[in-house]
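hey so u asked for the seq, here:
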Amino acid sequence: MPFDLQHYPIDEQLISWGLSLAEVEQLLASRQWLPTYGGWPNLRGACRSVLDLAAVECNLRAPARHKPVMQVSYELAPPPGYHGKYPVDAAYWVQPLTQLLGPPTKNTPLPDQNPVSSNVVHSVTWQWPTLRVSLSVFGGIRRTESGLAAAGLFLDWQDELTAARPFYEAAQAQAAALNAYAKGIEKLFLFELQQPQGGFYMPDYGSAEPHAARQDTEWRQSQRALYRERLCETPALVQNRLQSQQVALWAVPGQEAWAVSNYQDTIVLRPPHFPAVELLTLRPAKGYGTMLLSIGSLHLQDAYSSPALTHLAAALEQQVGVAVSRVVVSDC
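ran it, structure tokens below
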């Protein structure tokens, strides 16, 4: 099957990058899907081949069902007659992939990894500006619901600006409206945390500069719109009154709504459709302990000894009417 940067294959069918998970499910309506994994919404099912390599299973993952598929992975079958005593030689897949894709960007044996099925003993990467193809050779055979697998092939769509475009534009419009409302703010309720609160971004540890998006405003905001729900840029007036370790709770002027803001990210809370809110206390054990407050897609973290997130959770209950779930566990 030919390879191009605009599509990914599911057996003989080419699917365009940019389609949402829900759209792909409709496109592949005749397929039987297996129970999904945790984490991102996904579609998992039997698969015979990918890029002319024998496969047993594929998995399509997206940040949400209405958002684009960002990764497709394939469980690759072992060679015919393979008995599973040792890891399969990576050349079994690297040679045909190199003929199709060109020389790999990285080809990394991992000899220190124990040759067991849960480990990866060889990693190979092909990189383009908008796509990464990765091969992971397992230390042994993995049993999947669709058959035996000896390696995994991963296609990661990395054109985040394109993938995020409609969601980025909606978030920018929301931020512009919120900026206008914020001019009438009468009071900010400020909560002083012990730890700085950074804005959301998605690091890429497979790249030479994993934190590059943090310094690029459009990229960071696009990632936030793509990978998170209901977050937008904090209004300039609020930013100007916040330090990095502060969080603000404020009533949105002219609206029946409240907002919670750190320096870069804001979530608006509109009754009666509040997001889930959870205060997680990790008591010191093997770890030092920490406090975590999740307000929908806005995640705040502070030192265990700090009362700030406890106070913010109480304010959300008392002033906004949000139900806060509280969980206390040990930091193991």
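The first strand starts at residue 7 and ends at 10. The two ends are 48 Å apart (CA to CA).
lmk if thats what u needed
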